[in-house]
Specification:
- The protein is of the alpha+beta class and about 325 residues long.
- Helices cover about 35% and strands about 25% of the residues.
- The chain has ten helices and twelve strands.
- The chain has helices spanning about 5-10, 60-75, 95-110, 160-170, 175-190, 195-200, 215-225, 240-250, 250-255, 270-280; strands at about 20-25, 30, 40-50, 80-90, 115-125, 125-135, 150-155, 205-210, 230, 260-265, 285-295, 295-300.
- The protein has a six-stranded mixed sheet with strand order 8-10-7-11-9-12, with helices on both faces.
- A hairpin with a 7-residue loop joins strand 1 (about 20-25) and strand 2 (about 30).
- The longest helix is centred in the N-terminal third of the chain and has 19 residues, at about 60-75.
- The model is unreliable at about 310-320 (pLDDT under 50).
Length: about 325
């Protein structure tokens, strides 16, 4: 199978038809119609075998996750996903691998009516680069920079699940059988919070997706907004699986575990009520974890109000001030 066979067999037949794809795969470039009064929202993320997923990860998960991490960025902007391109570097043309990859990729694409409109295919180490495009009404996309003192900080879903999944598949975690499948699922097939992101437009003052861990990503909001925050450990949304793992991982998986793909966002007091009403249609629960403050820096508090001494566990970079 050469490059053109691969494109024809697996990618040119992508399953989503959209009227705004004026010209899709097959020419030198795609032609896409951005709706009037909307801004184009563009993001890209690359996944490298052995870096972003363990070598030997099943192809369905690789296909799913490659698109999921990109969708998560659009979710964080409050954008409606529409199109994507796929740059694929493959060590060999393995039909079974390609079928699995397409199953994961297009399964998620169908769910969000996301059309593959182009890409590039080359021979090389397994690398997947996706560029995703969507739109948001002019001026209404969510940014990292709008958080103000006095606002509440929320996260969707659960924290640290993917980090538990990673430790489990790496043989570094002992977890009761009943919890194993869900944390591995969370690692390999995350469901980006697209609905929540869309409904947060006009409600959240700042938003980010949690890909590098809560502390790091909330830190980006604080920096971009020129504010600080306090968060409460006993408010972090943790699963029964996390409770079972707590002796082994402490707070670290929830605070610094990567790959959660939940949203972290801030809500001004005057929009609190509207937010609570809207959140029933997010398709995921939201947890209030702390508050934005004028004083710069992130303060992490124990249940008794004492500063969390992350250094005890050797994680200096979380040290509360
Ligand atoms: P060119 O040489 O003009 O760049 P290519 O032969 O690379 O064209 O690609 C032919 C068509 O197939 C283009 O429309 C391109 O966008 C599309 N294409 C190539 N690889 C992929 C891929 N992995 N996924 C989707 N479309 C692809
Ligand atoms: Mg090309």
């Amino acid at each position: 199978m050469n490059e053109f066979d691969i494109i024809r067999e697996y990618f040119a037949r992508q399953p989503v038809t959209r009227p705004d794809v004026v010209l899709g795969i097959g020419d030198d470039a795609a032609l896409l119609a951005v709706p009037a009064d909307q801004e184009l929202v563009v993001s890209t993320d690359m996944l490298v075998a052995g870096v972003h997923f363990p070598e030997g990860t099943d192809p369905v998960s690789i296909g799913h996750k490659s698109l999921a991490v990109n969708l998560s960025d659009l979710a964080a902007m409050g954008a409606t996903p529409a199109w994507f391109t796929l740059n694929l570097s493959l060590p060999q043309a393995d039909p079974a691998w390609l079928e699995g990859f397409c199953q994961g990729l297009f399964g998620l694409a169908r769910l969000h009516e996301l059309a593959l409109v182009g890409g590039d295919t080359t021979h090389g180490p397994l690398t997947i680069g996706i560029q995703i495009m969507g739109f948001a009404p002019r001026g209404q996309a969510l940014r990292r920079s709008g958080a103000r003192a006095g606002e509440r900080i929320y996260v969707t879903g659960l924290l640290g699940e993917a980090a538990l999944g990673l430790r489990l598949v790496q043989g570094q975690l002992d977890l009761p059988e009943e919890f194993r499948a869900t944390v591995v699922q969370q690692l390999s097939r995350p469901l980006p919070r697209v609905q929540a992101g869309l409904r947060l437009r006009g409600l959240a003052s700042a938003c980010i997706d949690i890909s590098d861990g809560l502390v790091a990503d909330l830190g980006h909001i604080l920096e971009a907004s020129g504010v600080g925050a306090r968060i409460h450990l006993d408010r972090l949304p943790l699963s029964p699986a996390y409770d079972a793992a707590f002796q082994q991982v402490g707070w670290e998986a929830a605070l610094a575990g990567g790959d959660d793909y939940e949203l972290c966002f801030t809500v001004p007091p005057e929009r609190e009520l509207a937010f609570r009403n809207a959140s029933t249609r997010f398709g995921v629960s939201c947890s209030y974890i702390g508050d934005i403050e004028a004083q710069p820096g992130l303060r992490i508090l124990e249940k008794n109000g004492a500063p969390y001494r992350a250094a005890q566990r050797g994680y200096d970079h979380f040290r509360a001030e």
